[in-house]
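Weekly puzzle thread! Below is a chain. First person to post its structure in token form gets bragging rights.
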Amino acid sequence: MTETTRDEQITKLERELAVIIRRFRREIHRLHGKKVSGHEFIFLAHLARHQPEKVSDIAKKFEVTASYATMVVDKLIKKGVVHRERSQKDRRVVQLTMTDKGMDLFHTLKRERHTFIQRMFANINDEELRTLLDLLEKLN
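Winning reply:
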């Protein structure tokens, strides 16, 4: 058996990661259906933990433009899962909060995602999972 070079290993890793990411996105899209997009879910998850929140703060957190964050938030508002309101302390500030419908949707999708992720990692033991996490943290 011939030993692969570092460049060959990195190339193979790149291909494997690309397949994993595509499969993950496809499955998450299937789980969410037409309820929310991937970015909409990420914004909902953030709001579930940090509300009220300003669009500009969400944009900074996820390193997207304010206009992109506003577009995603507008879609969430149209779906009735997020509400935009002026701050009582400073009327110039517009804050976002989740509606009850939004919180229910978030918890439902969170459970579905959790089940999917558990299945995805079912064949990896605890030690392998720790190693994978350590390596990904090192790359990050």
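Puzzle host: Confirmed. Bonus trivia for everyone else. Residues 6-32 form the longest helix (27 residues).
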